[in-house]
Write a structure and sequence with these properties.
By secondary structure, the chain is mainly α. The chain contains 5 helices and no strands. The chain is extended. α1 runs antiparallel to α5. Among the domains are: about 30 residues, no CATH class; about 35 residues.
Length: about 110
């Protein structure tokens, strides 16, 4: 691993560790959920209507892990830990996919 890659990895891990800020600040300022991460019910409450396309496709776009949590009733500490785990998993998947694609493309480039 090069020095540059190590710096990038350190920054990515720092970002993953700081990701719970997204749930801590709204709780601290009593501001509700993150802006734009709303379901159709919240959109209806905020605007009085739900766009047709959103209403039609809402069921198709279900998150595999809603709100990055395994349980709905998790404590703030537990939610923070789950955010960090989600961030680390995202980093790991991205590195693995990038590494795999790089190896595949390098092999195809060397083939006669």
């Amino acid at each position: 691993m090069t020095k540059f890659q190590k710096k990038i990895l350190i920054w990515l891990i720092a970002l993953a560790i700081s990701s719970p800020i997204g749930i801590l600040l709204p709780k601290l300022f009593h501001s509700g959920g993150a802006w734009g991460e709303w379901n159709t019910k919240t959109i209806k409450e905020k605007t009085g209507t739900v766009p047709q396309g959103m209403a039609k496709d809402a069921a198709k776009w279900a998150a595999p892990m809603p709100d990055y949590n395994v349980k709905d009733d998790a404590s703030l500490l537990h939610q923070s830990f789950q955010y960090i785990v989600s961030g680390v998993m995202g980093i790991a998947f991205t590195i693995l996919i990038t590494y795999g694609l790089t190896k595949l493309l390098a092999r195809n480039e060397q083939a006669p």
